[in-house]
Amino acid sequence: MNEQKFRISGHYEPMKAADLRGYGVPEPWNFGVGFRATFGDLDAQNHVSNVKYLRWIEAFRMAYLRAYGWPEYATPGANLMVIRRFQIDYLKPVHLDDDVIVTGRTAQVGRSSCTME
Among the four residues 1, 3, 29, 95, which has the most C-beta atoms within 10 Å? Predict the structure, then answer.
């Protein structure tokens, strides 16, 4: 990531394509959410715990679903989306105060399922 820092708010505000390009995120990634690693995210090795990555992905997924028309996800009686599988390749550690941008997109849509990457 480049040297500029993005503003982190209490709400995970979605980042649009133009924002992502400013941080060096290439096409086809057009939707993202920024996070900053905090002390509570760290594990005994002093880098972000693997569990935190899943929480960031889940927060991203909820923002993505809301942005693309599924705002009632947690409403009783709403159509629910069940996660069948997560796959993560940990390429390098994230440390205290590092900024992270989680991006994703819908890669495939079926009759009763979809694949995000």
Answer: 29
DSSP E strands, 37-104: 99-103
Cα distance between residue 69 and residue 101, in whole Å: 22
Closest CA to 62 of 74, 52, 46, 78: 74
d(CA 31, CA 19): 9
> Which domain CATH number covers 31?
3.10.129.10
Contact 36, 100 (CB under 8 A): yes
Task: Decide if 2 is inside a domain.
Answer: no
Q: Domain span at residue 81?
A: 14-116
Residue 7 lies in a domain: no
Q: Which residues of 51-65 are buried (b: 16+ CB within 10 A; e: fewer)?
A: ebbeebbeebbbbbe
* pTM, full prediction: 0.82
> Tell me: the pLDDT tens digits for 33-52?
999 999 999 999 999 999 99
